[in-house]
Design goal:
The longest helix has 30 residues. It is elongated and about 110 Å long. The chain has 5 domains: 158 residues, 2-Layer Sandwich (Beta Polymerase, domain 2), CATH 3.30.460; 129 residues, Nucleotidyltransferases  domain 2 (Four Helix Bundle (Hemerythrin (Met), subunit A), Up-down Bundle), CATH 1.20.120.330; 77 residues; 152 residues, Hypothetical protein af1432 (Orthogonal Bundle); 200 residues, no CATH class. Helix 3 packs across helix 5, helix 10 packs parallel to helix 13 and helix 14 runs parallel beside helix 16. By secondary structure, the protein is α+β, with helices and mostly antiparallel strands. Helices cover 51% and strands 12% of the residues. The strands form 3 sheets. The protein has an 8-stranded antiparallel beta sheet with strand order 8-9-11-10-14-15-13-12, sandwiched between helices. A 4-stranded mixed beta sheet has the order 3-2-1-4, with helices on both faces. A 3-stranded antiparallel beta sheet has the order 5-6-7.
């Protein structure tokens, strides 16, 4: 049968016809491979070599070797010879008798003639050849010769694996740089893009080294999806190409059983991201295995157990991975692990991801929300997201995420799928955290701004607004903040649309922008930051200096229009009035410092501490230094003076049982207040802060005119460190200013402190004093 089939038609034509139904998948590929095997065995017999001829064999590698032949696949063949049994003349005759009929059929052929020793030598010198030879499979001839050679090649691969892992990783990394991501490409290369079929080969080569394994079920399923698409593409085009161009996407989708090209793209993206994740896991495991103390180096030196570091909230770090204590019942455990991974770049352990995937999910508590926002501010967010996404965790945490997950964007400017674009927008928004008064709202709006880009949506901004508002509520934001997020999502295209498409000299243009932000300066600044972050995340062509100039001009007009109506700073947490009054009364009775821990009524591992003392110069600074010395992690604070008494409420990490006894805090505060005028007492026993790594780490001190008629309001937005608040408070004391009230927030790596300052007579500061304190605060925040 094979000889009749291939006698008058090219083998590639037969293969294309055989893949008329690519959805048949692996069984069809195996059947086609068997058909080619039968033809090659006939050629072998015609060449004059007996089917079981000693010392000579025809072997397959590549897709034929793996029995995954596609309609456009080349034939990769090796004529394997034992030179003790076959002389040079016989080898040349046999090769000619095999190769010429294949060439005459018009089939693409990659061929070689080698001895087993030559196969080993080629594999030793050429990484790609070594990987390809791992698929060596007998087609005809001496099966024992092929099996023995394959065994020797695999043994050599394992012996040299420690030396070649780095080379293999470089090969995969270099391909990723040159080809991009299959999951996010609008015209993906099913073979060469990151997450494509070549990466599947690398994963299996790493497994063959015995240094790392993978989830075989996941990788096999992803490979089937990618090969089905490849087969359909080659059947549609009649060529061997693997680039899925726009012109062929509808036909390929129909041939693979999908209703639309977008539906097919989502399936391909899912497969590619699974392959990318399994490659990442395999590389990580292989590198860990060859590291000192790893499984591949044991016996080469003293075996040492990896160090275990315990962090707050049940987070563990061991062997370069972030995991969680399974016995911990801390409500912040999982989100705190995600935060640590996002801020440090350490990967989440597989067991931890599996545990998160099975954990029940409900609305976030405010404390969980704050930690999640911290994670959104982490520079390694994208890597963490891919890990969470491939396990389905992120879609469980964020309502509405599943509907946009892996959805392609048909705009030419977009580089990513909808979900990954939102993550990229968060990463771009991180640059603007020093420049907005509500960094948390900027980050969460960036995360949710395209939730409306689901199938059938007509206006994704309008339709996404209620979705984003509901998601923000689920993530633990109060109703007013969630409403602001919804407003920003609804209007996230308004600023750039007005700036680039309307007459900026027309008052109606400005009025439309003011209405969009509800005449709120805070929303205006967030919208400006979101506009640029969204554009840059989309792609290089979506933002330019021209657009930036127009957007900045219109933003400036709106800012000027609102300059006299700036809203007061947002208070994230409201202190308990009864607690304040109790502390106030105790200070009046005793005339000394007092400390009170309010009742811990909710389930959040965040505690309040209310500190009171007779007001005066340096009291605020002394309280801040006490908290630093006691190593209490301040999340937020509200500082105020009531009838001559400083009553300051602080929210710190930990349950009351984990905090120092109130008497310890009171004793420390009394000591700090008694020596507050001594310069040496202000020195904190802390290492100096590292220098700024980027411009985003540079502190920003902003005057907020119009925020108060009775005080001068200054905002300090800086990279957080344990001594920051104490340093800021110390500067205020040195300038003999009073802190009428203060609102302190910590968001990721940033601290946002809004200070209401007066002079010693309780009046707003004059311009010279403002200039001096702003300069001093800049210096203190940068120290």
């Amino acid at each position: 049968m094979p000889s009749e089939v291939f006698s008058s038609r090219r083998i590639t034509q037969v293969l294309h016809e055989g893949f008329a139904d690519p959805a048949a998948g692996p069984s069809r590929r195996v059947a086609q491979s068997d058909l080619v095997d039968d033809w090659l065995r006939e050629l072998w017999e015609r060449a004059g070599a007996p089917a079981s001829g000693a010392g000579a064999a025809l072997a397959a590698i590549g897709s034929l070797g793996r029995r995954s032949l596609g309609p456009g696949s080349d034939l990769d063949l090796v004529l394997l010879l034992d030179l003790e049994h076959v002389d040079q003349a016989e080898a040349e005759r046999l090769a000619s008798a095999l190769w010429y009929p294949i060439w005459d059929s018009g089939t693409a052929l990659d061929h070689s003639v080698r001895s087993p020793a030559e196969c080993e030598e080629v594999a030793r010198k050429d990484l790609r050849a070594a990987i390809s030879l791992l698929d060596l499979r007998v087609v005809a001839g001496d099966a024992e010769l092929v099996e023995d050679t394959a065994t020797r090649l695999r043994a050599q691969w394992r012996r040299e694996a420690r030396r070649r892992v780095g080379e293999l990783v470089d090969l995969a990394t270099d391909r990723g740089r040159h080809h991009g991501s299959l999951a996010h490409s609008t015209e993906p290369n099913l073979k060469s893009d990151r997450g494509g079929l070549r990466d599947v080969t690398v994963i299996r080569a790493l497994a063959e080294s015995w240094l790392a394994d993978h989830d075989h079920e996941v990788v096999d399923a992803a490979a089937r999806t990618l090969r089905d698409a490849r087969d359909a593409l080659q059947a549609v085009t009649g060529s061997s190409g693997t680039r899925l161009g726009r012109a062929d996407q509808d036909s390929v989708a129909a041939l693979t059983g999908h209703a639309t090209a977008d539906d097919h793209h989502a399936v391909l993206a899912e497969a590619a991201r699974a392959v990318t994740w399994e490659l990442h896991r395999a590389v990580r495991a292989a590198e860990a295995a060859i590291a000192p103390g790893g499984v591949a180096t044991r016996g080469l030196g003293a075996e040492r157990r990896p160090a275990l570091t315990r962090l707050p909230h049940g987070v563990l770090v061991q062997s370069g991975e972030v995991s969680v204590d399974p016995d911990s019942r801390d409500l912040l455990r999982d989100v705190a692990a995600v935060r640590h991974a996002a801020t440090t770049g350490l990967p989440l352990a597989d067991a931890t991801l599996a545990r998160m995937a099975e954990s029940p999910v409900g609305p976030l508590l405010p404390a969980q929300r704050d930690v999640l926002v911290d994670a959104l501010a982490g520079e390694h967010l994208a890597d963490v997201y891919e890990a969470l996404d491939v396990k389905g965790i992120f879609a469980r945490w964020v309502p509405g995420w599943m509907e946009v997950r892996n959805r392609p964007q048909r705009s030419a400017v977009h580089r990513f799928t909808v979900d990954r674009h939102q993550i990229e927008t968060v990463l771009q928004a991180q640059r603007f955290l020093p420049h907005v008064s509500r960094p948390d709202l900027l980050l969460v709006t960036a995360l949710l701004h395209d939730l409306g880009k689901r199938p059938g949506a007509r206006d994704h901004a309008v339709e996404g607004a209620p979705l984003a508002e509901a998601a923000a509520r689920h993530l633990g934001f109060p109703k007013a903040d969630a409403r602001a997020v919804g407003r920003l999502v609804r209007e996230h295209l308004t600023l750039v649309g007005l700036a680039t498409g309307r007459d900026l000299a027309d008052p109606a243009t400005l009025r439309e922008l003011l209405d969009a932000v509800e005449e709120d300066l805070t929303l205006l600044e967030i919208l400006r930051a979101l506009t640029e972050a969204d554009a840059i995340a989309a792609g290089p062509s979506a933002w330019s200096s021209w657009r930036a100039d127009l957007v900045d001009h219109l933003t400036g007009l709106a800012r000027n229009a609102l300059s006299g109506t700036a809203t007061a700073p947002h208070a994230a947490l409201a202190p308990q009035r009864a607690v304040q009054e109790a502390v106030l009364a105790a200070v009046r009775r005793s005339g000394s410092a007092q400390v009170l821990y309010p009742a811990h009524l909710d389930e959040e591992p965040i505690s309040q501490i209310c500190l009171g003392a007779p007001d005066g110069a340096g009291v605020f600074a002394a309280m801040a230094r006490v908290l630093v010395r006691l190593r209490l992690d301040v999340h937020s604070a509200v500082v105020m003076t009531l009838d001559g008494v400083a009553v300051n409420t602080w929210w710190v990490a930990g349950a009351p049982a984990d905090l120092p006894h109130p008497s310890v805090v009171r004793t420390a505060l009394d000591r700090e207040l008694s020596r507050r005028d001594r310069a040496d007492a202000r020195v904190l026993e802390l290492p100096p802060a590292p220098p700024p790594r980027t411009t985003e780490d540079t502190p920003v001190v902003t005057l907020l005119p119009g925020a108060s008629r009775e005080a001068t309001v200054v905002q300090v937005n800086a990279r957080n460190r344990p001594s920051l608040l104490a340093d800021v408070a110390g500067v205020i004391a040195d300038h003999r200013l009073q802190v009428r009230s203060a609102h302190v927030m910590t968001l990721g790596r940033r601290a946002v402190d809004v200070l209401y300052l007066t002079d010693q007579h309780g009046r707003a500061l004059d311009p010279p004093s403002v200039g001096r304190i702003v300069a001093a605060l800049m210096e203190a925040a940068a120290t």
